[in-house]
Amino acid sequence: METNISLKHAIEQIVKEKGIDRQVVLEAMEQAVLTAANKKYRNTRDLEARYNSDTGEVELFEFVIVVEEVEDSYKEISLDEAREIDPDVEVGDSLGEKIDSSGFTRIAAQTAKQVIIQKVREAERETIFNEYSDRQWEVITGMVRRFEKGDLLIDLGRAEAVLPSKEQMPREVYRPGDRIRAIITDIRVTPKGPQIILSRTHPSMLAKLFEAEVPEVAEGIVEINAIVRDPGSRAKLAVSSNDPDVDPVGACVGMRGSRVQNVVSELRGEKIDIIPWSEDIARFACNALSPAQVSKVFVDEDNRALEVVVADDQLSLAIGKRGQNVSLAARLTGCRIDIKSEAKAAEAELQAYASYDGTQLEDEEMEEGEVAADEQDAVETDAVETVETVETAPEAEETVE
């Protein structure tokens, strides 16, 4: 009786601690006892294991087929012997008999334990996969456990996640035991179980942080239309409002910048430009190049290209350090952006005008030259005709003589 109580207690403890379905644990127990019994009897018998919830034990049954003439004594029984057990039995019926399951050896018990452990591990992996597959693109908090070839292994409590080196923020340093927040980007099935992939550089990480900080974003009043990031350095966020009374930029910035500052602190000082979204590509480009002020925008819709003119003192601000500002703006708008200062634009316009004027003057000179050449040809033609006229008048010459 004490053994049965211990078995029931072990099952309840596994279900509670591991969070595994009770039926899965019972099937694992039955399979463990069946495996041990088959090993003991060398697979010579037709056995079946069932868990009895009333007694709290795994019962083992041996089944034999009723035949007229026995050929395999382990799997068959004669009709006369079978009718001593059950008078109503007929040839071809399967007769089951309970056998003692407590006489397994230590090796058999160890085998049963290994089967249980394996089943429990498989059930745990399936549970973890089902749980975290529904949490993809969710920001979670974990603890750094150790480093492995540049990757960070993060302890999430019931599961372990991986933060690859390419998904880590530049210049961020972590030590074992540090707490870290990241977004789940993928859940992969591996021979060692489900592998949870995290990221701190993905644009969705920024979107989820704003969703947690800004109630208007969480409620859908303010919509995040586009995000581009240079992780650890700078990001641009394009937002719009579904309510004309709500300023999308102001909602994301918060009172005295409190909301955006919380996001900046989480991303270790990454600068964030929040700009209003616009379907007008020219206006959107002007917003995307902020904080620089744009004077003119020329749009080439066929080639998805923009030529932007800014004041001379705004040129370096529009381009940004190492071209970062214009690069992020180009990625945000999806267009190629060419930036010029007003002085350069005026100089280019003047050169174009001069080139056009010179070409026109050259054409006029060519036309005048052609007219002069025609007149000269006409004079020469007249002179030739005059000479021919003189040479063809011999009679007049003789008369003079």
TrEMBL record:
GO molecular function: DNA-binding transcription factor activity; RNA binding
Gene field: nusA
Domain S1 motif, first and last residues per copy: 137-201
CDD domains: KH-II_NusA_rpt1, KH-II_NusA_rpt2, S1_NusA
Transcription in keyword set: yes
Name of protein: Transcription termination/antitermination protein NusA
Job of this protein: Participates in both transcription termination and antitermination.
Subcellular location(s) per record: Cytoplasm
Pfam families: KH_NusA_1st, KH_NusA_2nd, NusA_N
Cellular-component GO terms for this entry: cytosol
Biased composition (Acidic residues): 360-385
One Gene Ontology biological process: transcription antitermination
Keywords carried by this UniProt record: Cytoplasm, RNA-binding, Transcription, Transcription antitermination, Transcription regulation, Transcription termination
Subunit structure, interactors included: Monomer. Binds directly to the core enzyme of the DNA-dependent RNA polymerase and to nascent RNA.
Record family assignment: Belongs to the NusA family.
PROSITE patterns reported for this sequence: KH_TYPE_1, S1
Transmembrane regions: none
Segments for region (Disordered): 357-401
Claim: Transit peptide is one of the keywords in the record: no
